[in-house]
Amino acid sequence: MDLQERIKAFAKLGDFLSQFSKDTIQKKENIEHNEIFFDGFKHQLKLAQENNGWFTDENMRFSLEGWSKLLTEENLETWLKPYNISNVQPKLVAIIMAGNIPLVGFHDFLSVLITGHHVLVKQSSNDKHLIPYLAKYLEFVEPQFKGTIHFTDGKMENFDAVIATGSDNTARYFEYYFKNKPSIIRNNRNSVAVLTGNETEAEMKNLSEDIFRYYGLGCRNVSKIFIPKNYNFDAFFNGIYHWHPIIEKAKYANNYDYNKAVYLMSEFDMLENGFLMIKEDPSYASPIATVFYEYYDDIEQLKQRLKADVNKIQCVVAKGFSENEIAFGHTQKPELWDYADSVDSVEFLLAI
């Protein structure tokens, strides 16, 4: 199977996923093997939601819509053009996936297969229904994928390299356990936003997407904002208000109530609007239903601070702050070449 055949197969998967948008599920004509897979995938979405209360219909379909837009022949070719993907000797690459948001491990899965390697996947129990089904679809549209995709619940053995994602604690375990294998080991990261007080109403509304999408559970979710002295929070609260129905979700509401009680009993100063709390705190990782904030005096000093903490930060949302900043509202819309932790996984896979 050559690269172009693999690209075409993933583009067909993108066509299949285009039937599942964040607004609706609609069966289309001329989608290969749709009669076999369409209704079955709807069932997998139902199972995924029953297995994990954070995986709502809306959030899963948001993820699927994003992937459908990424998995086009044009996008895939643009992504892979800088690399020399020829004469790759297939290796077995193990992937240990997180399960915090839907399909969070799919980019690693795609990267391994698109570069011509075989994949051995160990999924999180929180996200175990979607990728195996999509893998089966890939095998139907391109039978040469059969025998290259493996899933396991047990011990991972006989692999040549590994990509593992987990917490700071599990990352230390991974680094020790896989010390003799080529590896990419990912740990906890969070995203921040740098505000000036001059943001437009639209930008603040877009920032709310970076905060609340997936209930804030992703490493690309903004969990902390940096603000100038004497910042007026009215613009912030006005911009996020349209997300207020999120409090109707039981799991989110339970976290909101719990964290609010903790803050009140501890007599912490915080502001809240009935569905989100903001608290001054030097940490990057905030609890669910909470965003931390910190004041800055000097923008250059803040740049140096974030540069020093680069290994703790996934995204910086801002306007005119730095060359690597992400626009408001775009943290959960990464391109194929936006690598987690800024580690080029394709380059890694071509070097093993």
From TrEMBL:
<dbReference type="GO" id="GO:0003995">
    <property type="term" value="F:acyl-CoA dehydrogenase activity"/>
</dbReference>
<dbReference type="GO" id="GO:0008218">
    <property type="term" value="P:bioluminescence"/>
</dbReference>
<dbReference type="Pfam" id="PF05893">
    <property type="entry name" value="LuxC"/>
</dbReference>
<dbReference type="InterPro" id="IPR016161">
    <property type="entry name" value="Ald_DH/histidinol_DH"/>
</dbReference>
<dbReference type="InterPro" id="IPR008670">
    <property type="entry name" value="CoA_reduct_LuxC"/>
</dbReference>
<protein>
    <submittedName>
        <fullName>Acyl-CoA reductase</fullName>
    </submittedName>
</protein>
<keyword id="KW-0521">NADP</keyword>
